[in-house]
Automatic annotation (TrEMBL):
Keywords: Cell shape, Cell wall biogenesis/degradation, Membrane, Peptidoglycan synthesis, Transferase, Transmembrane, Transmembrane helix. Residues 1-33 are annotated as: Disordered. The active site is at 479 (proton donor/acceptor), 501 (nucleophile). It comes from Bifidobacterium mellis. One of its GO terms (cellular component) is extracellular region. This is ErfK/YbiS/YcfS/YnhG family protein. The chain crosses the membrane at residues 62-81. Pfam families: YkuD. It comes from the Bacteria. InterPro entries: LD-transpeptidase, LD_TPept_cat_dom, Transpep_catalytic_dom. Residues 404-525 form the L,D-TPase catalytic domain. One of its GO terms (biological process) is regulation of cell shape. Pathway: Cell wall biogenesis; peptidoglycan biosynthesis.
């Protein structure tokens, strides 16, 4: 606002004002003052006020740190993405046009099953129509193999696998049965009396063999268009296609001679059981009746040919159920007994390697190959072997007053207890009868089962209330034999021998029971005398 008595200046007046040129400053005047370099100014404005402009070296280090941080972030993102997609579908993978990126195996399986169900062919014939799924048209989809193919799509290389601009459309993994397709179309669109029927083979349950079944000439469906539709759905499932069915008059599509040859080949495969080998001598036998269900001839109706084939999917399903059940084996740790010198005295538990079936699909391929080629040698299953471990127990059998063990001398019909090398007690016995497999086995054994009272059962006998039983070798052990006092007194197994056990007086069998715990070593030596030992 202009003061009273003065005229307020206008823009035009400013433009007409006189311009005054200031002379340049000379060095004669006072130097400019940097307030922020002054200690007093620092105290007045605070410590952050006084500073110097950053140098070019400081700026370079800052830029380098930022670049390094950006690189670390990118590397971290890269490894994070790789970790995320390790068990998921890679970017750019599709099934039937559906994006599969980032899906887990279970999610992929659900999508595969749904797209197989949704894959249909609308068939139209003369006054008849039908809607057929892939299975109706002789297509067997291997869902497990399809899921695996999707999960492994684009390989395992890092950058190319994760490149979203490189796509891969995965088809279904499937097998086709032309004969099944022909049968379906014939039954749906051609009257029974007009149908052509190819000769084929059937399994006779009573004879346990295949036999040829003669066909006949007549009307047959043209398969070409339907096969093209099926091929399209396998490549890109999940759609519904429409196809017109065309018929033709044909002679017998497959001759009886051809079917007879295939039946003969199939019966050759049934002549010997299929054997699958695991680890060591473990064998799994597949009955011929089961193999018969796998026979699936491969036909070409246009060429009039039939060849022996096998249903791989059925084979794999059977092996999925039976292979591990019959060939898997748990690892058993070997337990050795050593004396104080480190010498192995005995093996109380035999070591067994563990076996786990690993690749059923690979074994199924080998089975198919063996059946196709008529190879009767055992098929080697894919398996992982876990070597058994060893555990050692040191027993003081070779020193005075050491661990207890028992020596059974068949020659003089005695049992002697030792503590190491110190003899403790000797008992009269009567061992197993030396005939008909009833003799007492020789060797080194260990007491493993004990009963204060037991009813003993064996071939031709049942003896209740047997006291102080200490088994060391299967059904052989020490026990009271009150019914065999004469045999024990005389030491005469030829006349009074047992079924393999060591017969003893009650007080002696009880001493063994009280003083020889499970794990006590028993050495059976010598030869059974032909008459009384005493």
């Amino acid at each position: 606002m202009a003061m009273e008595g003065q005229e307020e200046p206008r823009i035009s007046d400013v433009d007409q004002a006189e311009t005054v040129t200031m002379p340049p400053a000379t060095g004669e005047g006072p130097d400019p003052v940097d307030l922020f370099a002054d200690e007093e100014a620092e105290r007045a404005f605070g410590s952050g006020a006084a500073h110097k402009a950053p140098s070019s070296g400081h700026r370079g280090r800052t830029i380098l740190a930022l670049l390094l941080l950006a690189v670390l972030i990118l590397v971290g993102c890269w490894f994070g993405v790789r970790a995320f997609f390790r068990d998921r579908v890679a970017p750019g993978v599709t099934l039937g046009g559906q994006v599969m990126m980032g899906r887990t195996r279970d999610q992929v399986r659900q999508i595969v099953d749904r797209q197989v169900r949704d894959s249909q062919v609308e068939l139209k014939g003369e006054g008849t129509s039908a809607r057929a799924g892939l299975k109706d048209l002789g297509v067997s989809v291997d869902s497990d193999a399809t899921v695996t193919k999707i999960m492994n799509a684009k390989g395992s290389a890092g950058l190319s696998r994760l490149n979203p601009f490189h796509g891969e459309a995965v088809p279904l993994v499937a097998e086709r049965d032309q004969l099944a397709m022909d049968r379906y179309l014939t039954e749906r669109f051609i009257p029974r009396q007009d149908r052509s029927v190819p000769s084929t083979i059937v399994f006779d349950q009573g004879a346990h063999a295949f036999r040829p079944q003669e066909g006949r000439g007549g009307k047959a469906p043209e398969l070409g268009r339907v096969q093209d539709a099926v091929s399209s759905l396998i490549d890109k499932p999940g759609r519904r296609l429409a196809v017109g069915v065309v018929y033709k008059d044909v002679t017998m599509p497959i001759s009886l001679d051809t079917a007879n040859q295939v039946a003969s080949q199939a019966n050759q495969r049934l002549a010997k059981d299929l054997v699958i080998k695991g680890a060591d001598d473990d064998l799994m036998t597949v009955p011929a009746a089961t193999v018969a269900t796998w026979v699936k001839p491969v036909t070409d109706l246009d060429k009039g040919t039939m060849e022996l084939g096998f249903d791989r999917q059925a084979i794999k399903q059977y092996l999925d159920q039976e292979l591990a059940r019959q060939l898997n084996r748990d690892m058993v740790t070997a337990v050795n007994v050593k004396n104080t010198k480190g010498d192995v005295v005995a093996e109380t538990t035999k070591g067994v390697d563990g076996v786990r079936v690993t690749d059923v699909s690979a074994t199924a391929d080998l089975v198919v190959k063996a059946l196709e080629e008529g190879d009767t040698n055992p098929v080697q299953a894919s398996a992982e072997i876990t070597p058994h471990k060893e555990q050692t127990r040191v027993a003081r059998y070779d020193v005075p007053d050491g661990d207890i063990w028992i020596q059974v001398n068949l020659s003089d019909q005695t049992a002697t207890a030792y503590h190491g090398t110190t003899q403790v007690k000797t008992f009269p016995i009567c061992s197993g009868k030396p005939d008909n497999g009833k003799w007492s086995d020789t060797g080194t054994f260990f007491i493993n089962v004990r009963y204060a009272v037991q009813t003993m059962r064996g071939q031709g006998y049942v003896t209740p209330n047997v006291k102080w039983v200490s088994y060391y070798n299967g059904s052989e052990g020490f026990h009271t034999a009150s019914w065999n006092s004469a045999g024990i007194a005389k030491g005469d197994p030829a006349q009074y021998g047992s079924h393999g056990c060591i017969n003893m007086y009650e007080q002696d069998a009880k001493w063994i029971f009280d003083n020889a715990p499970i794990g006590t070593m028993v050495k059976v030596e010598g030869q059974v005398p032909s008459g009384p030992a005493r």
